[in-house]
Design a protein that fits this description.
By secondary structure, the chain is α/β, with parallel strands linked by helices. Helix content is about 50%, strand content about 20%. Helix 1 links the parallel strand 1 and strand 2.
Length: about 140
């Protein structure tokens, strides 16, 4: 069964590039272009991983992350934040809100694909994080 990834990105070119690269690796990709759409899709059918852009129309990625973490259905779904925002503040804020990873744009597509693959290859670390979230 392929791992399911929810790709939350409002740039259509980036969506197509990432969808192509991740599909080629065997992942099942669903997409959302707004924060509200991402929340709805994640709650209806929780993915195995969320790639979450921070700058989105309407509800931004920080708000989406916070809401996903506060809902029992999505509290343990791993979130990797993706952003072009400069500096350390966005990364620190993301970690504080519960993001599991962070990658800054621009990046090589293969870099992101490798990050995703690495996440899925670390089941012990993932299980520890999930159990910590469930206890907290």
């Amino acid at each position: 069964m392929p791992k399911k990834i929810l790709l939350v990105e409002d740039d259509p070119d980036m969506v197509e590039m990432l969808r192509f690269a991740l599909n080629r690796e065997g992942y099942a990709i669903r997409t959302a272009v707004t924060g509200r759409e991402a929340l709805r899709k994640a709650l209806i059918a929780p993915p195995d991983l969320i790639l979450l852009d921070l700058i989105l129309p309407g509800l931004n990625g920080f708000n989406v992350c916070e809401r996903l973490r506060s809902h029992p259905t999505t509290a343990s779904v791993p979130i990797i934040m993706v952003t072009a925002l400069p500096g350390e503040l966005p990364r620190l804020a993301g970690v504080e809100l519960g993001a599991d990873g962070y990658i800054r744009k621009p990046f090589e597509i293969q870099e992101l694909v490798s990050l995703v693959g690495e996440w899925f290859r670390q089941p012990r670390v993932r299980a520890d994080r999930e159990s910590q979230r469930l206890v907290a």
